Amino acid sequence: MTDVDWDDELVPDDGGRTRAPEPDCPVEVALAAISGRWTTLVLRELMSGPLSFGELRHRLPSLSAKVLTDRLRELEARELVERQTLRGFPVRTSYDLTPRGRALRPLLIELYRTGNTLTPLSNIHSNTR
Amino acid sequence: MTDVDWDDELVPDDGGRTRAPEPDCPVEVALAAISGRWTTLVLRELMSGPLSFGELRHRLPSLSAKVLTDRLRELEARELVERQTLRGFPVRTSYDLTPRGRALRPLLIELYRTGNTLTPLSNIHSNTR
DNA sequence: CTGAATCCCTGCCGATACTG
DNA sequence: CAGTATCGGCAGGGATTCAG
Questions:
Q1: Choosing among B2, B110, B123, which should be mutated to test the A contact, i.e. which has the most A CBs within 10 A?
Q2: A26 FRET partner, CA 20 to 30 A, in A20, A79, B40, B74?
């Protein structure tokens, strides 16, 4: 039973009938997957194929090693990215999207599209002086 | 000139050729629009029509008045929600989505869809005891 | 009813330095 | 090359109290 009229396009099933940010609500799951500064950028880079740690740093120069490691570990924990250490000298590591990770592509595209329809913001309330 | 091979589905134009989280990158704009705890839930509620402050609180009982006000002010500043104070006693206020705000609907749907394809997480690495 | 004002706590993330 | 260790600042957000 529900006392609310759910929009079944926004809330197609019970998973979205939530009155608080439940971690297992699909929307929260998706948000968690792309959460954190730099995350969408890291995902974007990996979308075109596997990269090493250094290649990622080179493509995102102002991203510190610490934060990059954080992001990659999170993505790994969520099984969106797979790490593979390659024997040799010097050591190389390859980061590749899993099928789950590749499933984020339509979301990234939709984020871009939505952001584009949102810009620019009208400036009627801006204070110029 | 660019030394990277941009995926033109992910990065259709120059707005996405960024090496850091620039606030005016479309993806960042969209992320900002839905950023903050409870924001997507507030948006979901407003998607079916305007609501008063109290109606929002009733639909999201564990959301504090302070945070709700914060969210509504942010959404207002981004011109995603419009506030209208209704004369009378007691005071009533109506919050309604702007056209810009309604433009977020496809994104919310995509978040839900993506989250659904992501769940459940395989548990091979979970520690049960 | 619709907020504003505080307080405080936690977690993010950036900078820096160090290691196998 | 691919990270780890540590520290600190700051903003997010929850609880509580007060006001128009």
A1: B110
A2: B74
